[in-house]
Write a structure and sequence with these properties.
It contains 15 helices and 10 strands. It is of the alpha/beta class and about 350 residues long. An 8-stranded parallel β-sheet has the order 1-8-7-6-5-4-3-2. The chain is globular. Bound molecules: flavin mononucleotide.
């Protein structure tokens, strides 16, 4: 299939694995690129330029397909990272595209393009998407309120956000937030997006380096099992409803709550260790509402192939409906049969 995203990135399917701090490493990202999507490694995972360059080289040894580098522009994430150096390394190593997120990337666009690299910027609101276009970005990802991590202050869900962004932007729009299957992909493309970014879905794959406890938590969770925290300190985060998130909400009610204080009282520097030890309750664990759509832990290739099959089923259904065939075929593609979950409700 062809969309403006597959053409721009030189990929087979319009599916990007979102940048994921801790998990944006070659083991996962190369599997995504090899399966026809676009994998992403995160600059923020690596202590210095040398380690980052080694990671890019590891990617190139594992896949000959295009991939992304996620570069956070948030000051607390980028501390110690030399942004210019990162761009230079990406250019020298032939990285196809950089995904920035966090603040307006206007000043970086000439440097990224000057290094021969495409620039995709990720935003949480339609008006920021337009700013990214004006800044000269090649594509923009719009992340709706359902998304894992930082949904932004507009609190607009993916359905309206994607629809709105494609109506006001001329550059390709990629939809993020709540997409985890072929039906979601079909819906995003129907809205006018050129592809999807998925984060939460990729956590529950064989290749993701998270401890099995985190993957098990996702599989048993429903769409009601995320929490929004840190709103009071203007750093809104959608995370798993676990002990740490509930403690965060309690701490936020204290009069002197501040982002730095909260982070050190909560996970502090323990996130990497918790992800390795399987301490699901010990940290703020970013997950999106899409957890309610995830029931298995497949390999990345099986997952992407399954998404593309279900996308085909969704198109068939639309054609059937257009032909006035509404009641003839039950809409329950393989692998999505309702199952009984906690509390006896079926989904
Ligand atoms: C565990 C985890 C860590 C994330 N870390 C980052 C990050 O470091 N930088 C970033 O731009 N986005 C980050 N995200 C957001 C994803 O790139 C993506 O935009 C989001 O997950 C899409 O929504 P979804 O989870 O509903 O698919 C993270 C997401 C997850 C699940």
């Amino acid at each position: 299939m062809k969309t403006r995203l597959t053409e721009l990135m030189g990929i087979q399917y319009p599916i990007i694995q979102g940048g994921m701090h801790h998990f944006g490493v070659p083991a996962l990202a190369a599997a995504v690129s090899n399966a026809g999507g676009c994998g992403t490694i995160n600059r923020s995972v690596y202590a210095g330029s040398k380690e980052f360059r080694n990671a890019v080289r590891e990617m190139k040894s594992l896949t000959d397909k295009p991939f992304l580098v996620n570069l956070s522009l948030l000051p607390d994430v980028s501390v110690g990272e030399n942004v210019g150096e990162t761009i230079r390394i990406c250019g020298e190593e032939g990285v196809r595209a950089i995904e920035t997120a966090g603040t307006n990337p206007k000043e970086l666009v000439p440097y990224i393009h000057g290094a021969g690299i495409l620039h995709i910027h990720k935003v949480p609101g339609a008006r920021y998407a337009l700013s990214a276009e004006k800044a000269g970005c090649d594509a923009v990802t719009v992340a709706g309120f359902e998304c894992a991590g930082h949904p932004g202050g507009d609190e607009i869900g993916s359905l309206v956000l994607t629809n709105r962004a494609v109506r006001i932007c001329r550059i390709p729009v990629v939809a993020a937030g709540g997409y985890a299957d072929g039906r979601g992909l079909a819906a995003a493309l129907a809205l006018g997006a050129e592809g999807v970014v998925m984060g939460t879905r990729f956590l529950a794959t064989k290749e993701c380096t998270a401890h099995a406890n985190f993957k098990a938590w996702i599989v048993q969770a429903s769409e009601n099992d995320t929490l929004l925290c840190q709103k009071s300190v203007h750093n809104l985060m959608r995370v798993a409803n676990n002990e740490c998130a509930r403690r965060c909400l309690r701490l936020e009610r204290e009069p002197d709550a501040a982002p730095g204080k909260l982070m050190s009282a909560l996970s502090g520097g323990r996130a990497s260790a918790a992800y390795e030890d399987g301490d699901v309750d010990g940290i703020l664990f970013p997950v999106g509402s899409a957890v309610g759509l995830i029931h298995d832990i497949p390999s990345v290739k099986d997952m992407i192939d399954g998404i593309m099959r279900e996308y085909g089923d969704a198109l068939d259904r639309m054609l059937q409906l257009a032909c006035g065939d509404s009641g003839t075929k039950e809409w329950a593609p393989a692998g999505t049969a309702p199952r009984v979950e906690r509390g006896g409700e079926s989904r």
